[in-house]
Amino acid sequence: MAGDQEPSQESALAESAKTWGQFAAMYQAFMLLAWQEAILSPPRIQEAVVNALKLWRLPTHPEQEEAIKALENLNARLAELTAKVEALEKQWADG
User: Which residues contact 67 (CB under 8 A, 6 or more apart)?
Assistant: First the structure.
C-alpha cells in the first residue's frame, strides 16, 4: 500500500521547489541566448516589433509619420483660423 499513497505535501513542495530551481537556472541562459540571437538578426527584431505593434494596435513608423503630418496641418489651419478670429474681434472692438 505504500506505493499507492499520494505524495505528501512536503514531498510535493520539495519537488516543486526543485523543478522551479532548475527552471530558474535555465531561464537566464535561455534569455541570454534569445537576446544574442535577436541582436544578430536585426530584420527579425524589426519584424517582431511590427508584429507587436499590430498586436497592440499601435501605429507603425509610417503611420506615425502620417499622423504627425496631419496634426501639423491641423495645427497650421488652427493658427490661421485663430488669426482670423483675432482680426475679426479687433474689428468688432474698434467698431
Answer: 59
